[in-house]
Amino acid sequence: MRPAALVYFLVIESAVAAAAIWLLGTLGSVSNADWLRFGAVMFAITVHLMIVRRAEESRRNESAGPHIDLTSVWTFAAAIALPGALAVLATIWMRILIQPIARRQPYRFVFSTASILGGTMLAWAVVHLSGLSLLATGRIPADLGLVLVLIVAAVVNWGAQGMNIAIALKIVTPHTRIQEFVGSRADNMLELSTLGAGAMLGMLMTTHWVGPLLLVFPVILVNSLLYHAAERRAHLERLLREQEQLQARLAEDAHTDYRTGLLNTNGLAEYAGRLTERCRHDGQPVTVLAIDLDHFKRINDTWGHPAGNAVLAEVGRILREKLRPGDVAGRDGGEEFVVVLADTGLAQGTAIAERVREAIGEMSVITTDKHRNTVTLRGRNLPLTADGPEVRAISASIGVAVLPDNGDCLMDAQHCADAALYAAKENGRNQVRVAAGEVRVLPAPRVDEPREEPVGESVGRGAGVTRSA
């Protein structure tokens, strides 16, 4: 606990304890009629809290902020109709009965008790120090003055308790707004209504001691209605949360490729288009990568579609790991992937493409063949093993295009990246090519990769980065 909170707690508790002890010293002057009223209030409090215990526990568990119950009807009535000493005893008895329901830490419970007891004693002081008679006098100004006094007493009782608790919680958790500790509008309206019922009960008790016995069952009924209303509200809130989660899941499924975990064609068009438009508005470049797995049909034909699916899933994992949080990656059908890199120029985009190509070429995917035998498919960039060269079946060709150099929109950049991808396919595969510019020096080709004759312009013969006009 913060030292400031501890000091505040001790000051409030000490002041309330001193006032309560002083009032308890007047017990000797209490009349028999007051003891009879006190007995009726104690009986009503006991019956009320014993019957609504389970419902009140549930309401407290559902309450996000300060909990508002109906016990103020008894404590405020006691402050109006009873001597100060008996009002203190009635409040303490109410808190003793409510402690098993509240189940708060001892220091919090003691401070809350001090706040409630302090509010009750302040209300008692407002009513009894006003000098007005609690009985009807027939004089309109005096009777209306009593109504005003009761209103002031109710506001003092409500404000003293609420603000005291709010200030204490603000000291304990300073970063939280004080409005969150005061309670909702509905809670405070319920508290003021309860105080109004307590004022009527207090006036009734001045004329007949059976007032609490008449009101106890209506209060229990209201408590039960509040409990069922809270249950229905909680049920509706759970249904709304489940519906929101279902809608979010459906929206995610509608934009996600279930095999790779990347965006599907619809999701790619939406999110990549949004990212491209943002970068265009900010004047930042966007790099588009068109990725295609080399000889992917051979994997499906040789080992079966489960093996191909395992390779696709592993490529999806690599793309998620290699890309930044703001980038967009999706599967554009079959073995083709599209990556859109935000705020990325050609040099950085080409370097990212090369890292992706190398990672795909160094993959090892444990899967099964057509006969359900375990087989490990390897990237073409890995060295030969005893399993033979045929398991080195995984590599990718990548085309790179940049906006605004290669068009004015995402579709233009995709077309340019696809053209560069086709050039990479035609010139040996397992390489990165950009959409325009001069040829770069390439690393030596892999000896086990089948060499296809280029169609059109001749470029370097190995895996690496080239430019395609």
From TrEMBL:
Keyword Transmembrane found: yes
Gene3D superfamilies: 3.30.70.270
Family matches, as InterPro entries: Diguanylate_Cyclase (IPR050469), GGDEF_dom (IPR000160), Nucleotide_cyclase (IPR029787), Rev_trsase/Diguanyl_cyclase (IPR043128)
Bilayer-spanning residue ranges: 35-52, 73-98, 110-135, 142-160, 209-230
Domain GGDEF residues, every copy: 284-437
SMART domains, sorted: GGDEF
Residue ranges that the Swiss-Prot or TrEMBL entry lists as coiled coil: 229-256
PANTHER family: DIGUANYLATE CYCLASE DGCM-RELATED, REGULATORY COMPONENTS OF SENSORY TRANSDUCTION SYSTEM
Record-given protein name: GGDEF domain-containing protein
Organism field: Saccharothrix hoggarensis
